Amino acid sequence: MAEDGTDDTKLIKKEKHKRKHKHKHKHKGKHRQEEGHGNDHAPPPSIPGVNLSLKRVALLLGAYLALGTVCFYLVRDQITGKKTHELLDSMYFCVVTMTTVGYGDLVPETKFAKVLACVFVFLGMFLGGFALSKAADYIVEKEVTMFVKAIQVHEAFDPDQMLSEAAEESDKLKLKFLIVLALIVLHVIAGIVVLIVVEDMSVIDAYYCVCATITTLGYGDKSFTTTGGRVFAVVWILTSTISLAQLFIYLVELWTESRQRQLVDWVLHRKMTVQDIENADLDNDNSVSPAEYVVFKLKEMGLVNDQLIMNVMEGFKDLDVDNSGTLTANDISNLGKLMSRRL
């Protein structure tokens, strides 16, 4: 009998039934359930969600454009250059400033307008850096998710399955890369067509202006000067520069995933040595448990380091209230009681 009066035999049978049920679902191909439908491998709530971060970036972008348009509209008389419509020019100038294209067809003239432009260009660069950091978080989160999967030692450790999932993720990433590449090509074609038809440029000049814009080079000798051209430019400059940045992010991720997959394949299939057994034996009991084997392999793959393992173990010790070396429902219950007493 357990301390709370529950029959141990019933608990064991119940646990076996749960594992058997989970094992059946795994072989039916449901081991990768969609988010929101009970995914056992989903990151815990403590790991920031990428979707939430991207929404935050979109909200910041919208707020930046709205605030910038209003501010530059209020100082429109202090900005000189080729003008079309006051509100449109303000939005156009805000986009050109944020993306650091800086054509020079509209420039601040007074000291106040120049300071305002400096403020918004730094805010735009900060926003761009924040967006790139979210992309970096996405890559890191994928590695953390793999770590979370691996430490669930109640499921079988299947090297071939891990490699198969990695290959599948790589194929998805290649598809994303090709889609963004196609979007870049469409942006280039659309930009050239509009510059030829609306801005009356030659094919070479239009292509030159498109390249200078997408790469945020912005020499300024060629730009959008008509009302129709600037309406198009407000949307086109934003989407084209973001798409190009996304393309480079996917390119870097493809390269790192390729290197990571090669490393994973080598680690999973290389022969274990006596020295490896000694290194993997974390508790020095002259044997390697499945958990120790998983941690050892993750270290070889470069997915975890000693510091991260120590941090996880510290968390385990905090939860192991009775110092038994294992976690039980009683540990969690006792920890809750202990925390409530302290409060």
Secondary-structure map:
Layout: H1 8-30, H2 50-74, E1 79-81, H3 86-98, E2 106-108, H4 111-150, H5 159-197, H6 203-214, H7 227-269, H8 274-280, H9 290-301, H10 306-319, H11 329-342
Antiparallel strand pairs: 1-2
Family: Belongs to the two pore domain potassium channel (TC 1.A.1.7) family.
InterPro entries: 2pore_dom_K_chnl, EF-hand-dom_pair, EF_Hand_1_Ca_BS, EF_hand_dom, K_chnl_dom
Organism: Mikania micrantha (bitter vine)
Written overview of the protein:
- The chain has helices spanning 8-30, 50-74, 86-98, 111-150, 159-197, 203-214, 227-269, 274-280, 290-301, 306-319, 329-342; strands spanning 79-81, 106-108.
- A two-stranded antiparallel ribbon has the order 1-2.
- Mean pLDDT is 75; it is low at 1-14, 16-52 and 151-157.
- The protein has 343 residues and is mainly alpha-helical.
- Helix 5 packs across helix 6 (203-214) and helix 5 (159-197) packs antiparallel against helix 7 (227-269).
- It folds into two domains: 54-269, Orthogonal Bundle (Helix Hairpins), CATH 1.10.287; 274-340, no CATH class.
- The two termini are 32 Å apart.
Summary, kept brief:
By secondary structure, the chain is mostly helical. 71% of the residues lie in helices and 2% in strands. The chain folds into two domains: 54-269, Helix Hairpins (Orthogonal Bundle), CATH 1.10.287.70; 274-340, no CATH class.
